[in-house]
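Q:
Just now I want nothing more than another pair of eyes on a protein record. Here is the record:
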Amino acid sequence: MRKRDTVRRTTAKEVAAAAGVSKWTVIRAFTPGSSITEESKRRVMEAAAALNYSPNLLARSLATNSTRQVAVFVDDFRNPQKLPFLETLTERLQAAGLVVMLININNHFDHVHALLHADQRQVDAVILFGTAFRDETLADRKLGHGMPPMFVLARDSQIEGVPAVVCDAELALREIVDHLHEKGYRRPGFMSGATALSTALRRRQHFTDFWAEKGVDKIELLSAEKYSAEAGATSVHEYLSRTAPAERVDVLMCENDILALGAMDEIRGKFGLRVPEDIAIVGFDNYELGGSSAYSLTTYEQPRFEMVEAIIGMIVGTTEAETVTLPGKMIIRNST
C-alpha cells in the first residue's frame, strides 16, 4: 500500500518572511497581551491567513511553561446529575481559552494513576469533581512535589492545601429542615449515597443537627450503595419491608435527586403509597426530571454557574486559591 501523503505545516519562519518581520514578531502577534504595533500585527495576520498558518500551542507551552490544559477527574459517570455540571464546566473552561482533559476514574485507572498521567501531560490544574479522593492518596510514594495544583468542585475538600468550591450545605439543610418542620413533619429519615462521597457532602450531619435543634433526635438513616435511581429504590424497599406502617418516617430526605426519584417510584409503584400524603420526599441538586409533573420533587439547587466561575478564577489566577462556599436556592414542589 502506498504511504499516505502528509501536508507539511507552515512555520512561523515562513510567515515572518512573507510579512517582512522577524520570527519573534510572529510569535508576539499570536500571544495575547504581547507588545506589538498594530501595523506589524496586521501584516503578520494577513500573511498567516494567506499561508493557512496557525501557531503550535505545544511548542508555545515549552516557552510559557503553561499548556492551558485542565484535567477533570470524574468517577461516577452513571450519575446523570453530573451532566449539567460538566456541560457548564467544560463550556466555561473553553471560553477561558483552556483545553479540558476528561479522565474517567474507574477500577482500571485510579486516582494515583490519573494524577501521574495528568502530570506527565503537564496540565495546568486538576479539578476533582465528585471523586472519592482521600488524604492517603496524596501520601502515595509515587506522588512527589511539583504536581499540578488541585481543586475540588461540588464537595468539601478533605485534603490540606486543596481548595474547594461548594454549595453551602449548612445553609441548604437549615432551609430544608425549617420547611419540613413548618409543614408539620416530625418523623424524618435521611437516605445517603456512596459512603466516601456522602461524608464529604456533610448533608446528613447538618440534617441531623438541625432536627435536633427542633427537639427531634430520632432520624431514620437509610443507605444506598451508589447514586442511582436503582440504589434509591432498593434502599427504600428494604426499609419499608421491615418497618410497620405506623412506625415509618413521614418525610424522607435523599442526598440527591436521583436517589429521591428512585425512592418515589418504589414508594408509589411497589407499595402503593402516596407522596406526600403517606411519605413526603426531598432531594438535592434540582435535576431536570425532578421538576416534571410525574415527580414534582422538592429539592435544593446548587449555584452551578457561580461555582464553576469561582474555580476557573482560581485556575487562571484572577482570584485567590481558597475554599469558597456559595448559597443555593430552595425549590419547593408538591412532594412535600
About this structure: The first helix runs from residue 12 to 19. The mean pLDDT is 87. The domain at 169-302 is CATH 3.40.50.2300 (Rossmann fold). The CA atoms of residues 251 and 279 lie 5 Å apart.
